[in-house]
């Protein structure tokens, strides 16, 4: 891979600055009340620079999902448990910590966007997050530790996880998402062990 030029590095830095400033605003105010100009003012860039990097305000939310997947994969590659059930816990905890770091208000913007978007990226079974949990579940069903269809178990884990994040958003982050995620995941795993 060729090293990036200074211009490419600057463009990436500008895109990341726009993205992080937008997320900061989404954590403070409702998505609908924030304009592209607000984001540009916060990032100290022109509207033209914004549209050079993002097609629309919605595109920033799409970028956030891809960034989450990239960060999850990086965390996984830096070291993950070998035991499949612990690997599932590792990824679900990565998701919970990511949401906690983002904050309930910003996380809610992502969920609202997915409800109205034609592209349901969060449901894409080709995502690293989905595939890695599926492979761990398959390993456990093959050994007989978990009983049932691997895809159905994976869908249950992810569906409940998304529902819990939504509940956490509704409660405005008033409880520790990672603690509750761990407890609920243990309940799901216990159900499929019987």
TrEMBL record:
Record keyword Protein transport present: no
Pfam families the UniProt entry points to: TetR_N (PF00440)
Domain HTH tetR-type positions: 12-72
Protein name as catalogued: TetR family transcriptional regulator
Origin species: Faecalicatena orotica
Domain of life: Bacteria
PROSITE patterns per the UniProt record, alphabetical: HTH_TETR_1, HTH_TETR_2
Keyword list, A-Z: DNA-binding
Keyword Glycosyltransferase attached: no
MF terms (GO), sorted A to Z: DNA binding
DNA-binding residue intervals: 35-54
InterPro entries, A to Z: DNA-bd_HTH_TetR-type_CS, Homeodomain-like_sf, HTH-type_Tx_Regulator, HTH_TetR, Tet_transcr_reg_TetR-rel_C_sf
